[in-house]
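Record passed on here:
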Amino acid sequence: GLSQYSSDPRTEWDLNAYSSRDQVLEAVRNLRYKGGNTFTGLALTHVLEQNLKPDAGARLEAEKLVILLTDGKSQDDANLVAQTLKNLGIEIFAIGVKNADEAELKQVASEPLELTVYNVLDFPLLSSLVGRLTQVLCTRIKEKSNKEYTGSAVKDIPVNMGPQLSPTDLKISAVTSKSMHLTWSPPLRPPKKYRVVYYPSKGGISKEVVLDGAVSSLQLSNLTSNTEYLLSVFPIYDTAVGDGLRGVTSTLPLSSPRSLRVSELSHNSIRLSWKAAQGATQYLVLCSAAPDGAED
């Protein structure tokens, strides 16, 4: 299975999409590169919430591995959800290219780091990792499978976390040109943290807020006026991530001055007056001579 991410993760194909090596290689050849931001935390949440579920082809008896490939430092908190994945027994391998933050790779990856963290200077050099990485991955799968057969506990991702772990009823209120208020109903089992992610639907910088699990409301401020925002609320537990609660709403346009009036005309001056725009701290007044033949 494969997902690409920027500020909005996108599943390219699920674990059960292809059944042969040739099919997978053909899918890779047809892959379109997704540019944009680097929200690794959101991407790992997407993998856990969407890609590692039975309806996406994840088999409960199979070992779970996540290979993260990134060329930059994450713009959100990747460690929280990475720890959740690792608590579920999912191994994370982190591969950095170019401007990747090696300290962050080591924080996200599973132990032992000498087997799970790789960093190269440019994309063509990734080919040098293939042989070793393939060997390490296969060996780790065999080791974990042997532990399972000898009776060691292996944690499975919950098949259906249901309302017990997921918030409901997202309400958006008090919407202004630069703020809005979010509230939701907490799940039956309070989470350790909430992760609230919001970003403009037509592209732009994604932001996130991490809240204590006892809190179920948030005031978002410093938003852009007259803009549609996508909102997601993720409950984070020690060993699971509940289904995300999502919403969409638009901020109001900035208020405009009204009723422009002209008075006190002279040969070189004009007096203008208008009804004030709510919240305006300054006005910019532009004037130019009308072209010949235009109405004065």
Remarks:
- Residues 130-149 form the longest helix (20 residues).
- Residues 168-251 form a domain with the Immunoglobulin-like fold (CATH 2.60.40.10).
- Residues 149-161 have pLDDT under 50 and may be disordered.
